[in-house]
Amino acid sequence: MYVCLCHGISDKKIRKLAVEQGITDIKGIKRCTALGSQCGKCIKPTKEILAETSYLQLKQAS
Questions:
Q1: Measured between alpha carbons, how far is 34 from 61 in angstroms, rounded to an integer?
Q2: Quick one: which of 3, 4, 14, 28 could link to 23 by a disulfide (CB 3.0–4.6 Å)?
Q3: Residue 1 carries which DSSP code?
């Protein structure tokens, strides 16, 4: 699903960046994409996706 409609950034892209590059916060995602640079409605769902991804990674590691 698209999280950032302004720039066409999907949840898959955010998860991929989180897993492959170890990004855990909005600042990291913003460094790699244009997320949040227009209307900003994508910030909250992105934080939730990053938290969920981090949780799943920790769960798999244990």
A1: 31
A2: 28
A3: -
Is residue 29 within 8 A of residue 17, CB to CB? The reply is: yes
Q: What value does the mean pLDDT take over residues 6-24?
A: 96
CA 58 to chain CA centroid, Å, is 17
The pLDDT score that the predictor gives to residue 62 is 76
Question: Residue 58 — pLDDT band, cuts 50, 70, 90?
Answer: confident
* Ramachandran quadrant class, 40 (left: phi over 0; alpha: psi -120 to 50; beta: rest): left
Whether 13 and 33 have beta carbons less than 8 Å apart is answered as yes
Give the residue with greater pLDDT, 59 vs 42. 42
